[in-house]
């Protein structure tokens, strides 16, 4: 009986946004990804939580609600990385074109910007818990 009640509440909660799509509703609170390092830490921490749920033999309704909650922070982190990758790609393209046109200053500036930004993605960072 308890599982049925919890399931009904969870399903009602998950369906509420579609029932009131025209009205503004509150989402779960999400951590913002204010910079690349924060985004990576959020991905590491929240991916571990997601993986722990996925490792369960049976995913309960409560787990699905938890995944729903986790995805808000994960989406913010992924969006931040998408923005960062656009800038990284632009810097790399500028370096590429500068190498074709023999523009040493542009090549150096763009390449350094590319390497600095990419280092944040490739080097493991210490995350605050």
TrEMBL record:
It comes from the Bacteria. InterPro entries: DUF6746. Residues 1-21 form the signal peptide. Keywords: Signal. This is Uncharacterized protein. The lineage of its organism: Bacteria, Pseudomonadati, Pseudomonadota, Gammaproteobacteria, Alteromonadales.
């Amino acid at each position: 009986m308890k599982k049925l009640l919890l399931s009904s509440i969870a399903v009602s909660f998950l369906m509420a946004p579609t029932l009131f799509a025209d009205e503004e509703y509150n989402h779960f609170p999400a951590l913002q990804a204010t910079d690349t390092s924060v985004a990576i830490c959020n991905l590491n921490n929240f991916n571990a939580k997601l993986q722990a749920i996925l490792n369960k033999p049976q995913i309960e309704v409560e787990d699905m609600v938890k995944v729903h909650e986790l995805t808000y922070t994960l989406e913010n982190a992924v969006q931040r990385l998408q923005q960062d990758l656009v800038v990284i790609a632009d810097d790399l393209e500028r370096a590429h074109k500068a190498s074709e046109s023999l523009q040493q200053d542009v090549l150096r500036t763009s390449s350094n910007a590319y390497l600095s930004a990419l280092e944040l993605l490739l080097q493991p960072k210490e995350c605050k818990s």
